[in-house]
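Quick note —
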Amino acid sequence: MTDQNLYGVDAVVLDIEGTTSATGFVVDVLYPYARERFGELLASRGDEPAVARAVAQVRAEIGEPDADAGRVEKVLGEWVDADRKATPLKTLQGILWAEGFARGELVSHFYPDVIPVLRRWHADGVRLYVYSSGSVAAQRAWFAHSAEGDLLELVSGLYDTENAGPKQEADSYRAIASSTGVTPGRLLFLSDRPGELDAARAAGWRTVGVRRAGEPYADADFGDHPQVPAFSGIAPLAATPDAGSSS
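Predicted structure written out below.
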C-alpha cells in the first residue's frame, strides 16, 4: 500500500498478536509456559504486591473473596482456555514470561517483515508505541528479547488494558493519544482485529488492518479500513512527503 494519505503520521501504535507476531507462538508456547507455573507462583510468591493485587482482582471478578490459591489457579486455567483478556491473568502471565525471557528460556517471535520496517520508521523520526492485551511487563520482555536482540530502544511507550483500557473501546485510544501528546489524526494504529480498528477510528486515529495468512482474523471483514498482508506493504511514514521520501 502506497497511499499518500499516510503522510502526516507522527506515531504508530502496534498491536502484537497477529500483527507483529504470530498468534500461534503465544498460544502454543507462552500460554503453556505460564500455565505450568501459575501454581508455584501463587503458592510461593502470593505476598508480592503485583501477585497479591492480581489475585484480589481474580477473587473480585468471580465473586469469591476467600478463594484459595488452588481455586485461583483453576480460574486462571479456565480463562486461558477461553482466551479471556482479563487484566489479572495478563499480569500474572507477564510476570512469568518476563522471567522466562530473562533466563533465556523464551525468545519472542516477530514476523520477518516487521523489524526492518520498525527500524526504518524509527530512523525516520516516527515514534513507536505498543498497545496489547498482554501486560506492559510482558510487552517489555517481548521487545527486549527478540531473535535480533533488544528492540526496546525503538519503542517510546507501552500500553495495556490496565493503563489504557479495553482494546475495543474508543476511550482507550483517546487515553493513549492524551498520554503520548500526539494529535489523534497523526496517530496510526496497526491491528489484525476489525473491532480494535473501529474503536481507534472512532477516536480520530488513522488505521491499517494487517491481514496475515493463517492468523485467526485473516478472513475477517475489515470494512473500509486499508489493509496490508505485511508491514512491507505500508507506505513510508513521516510528518511530510519530503521526510517520508528520505527512507
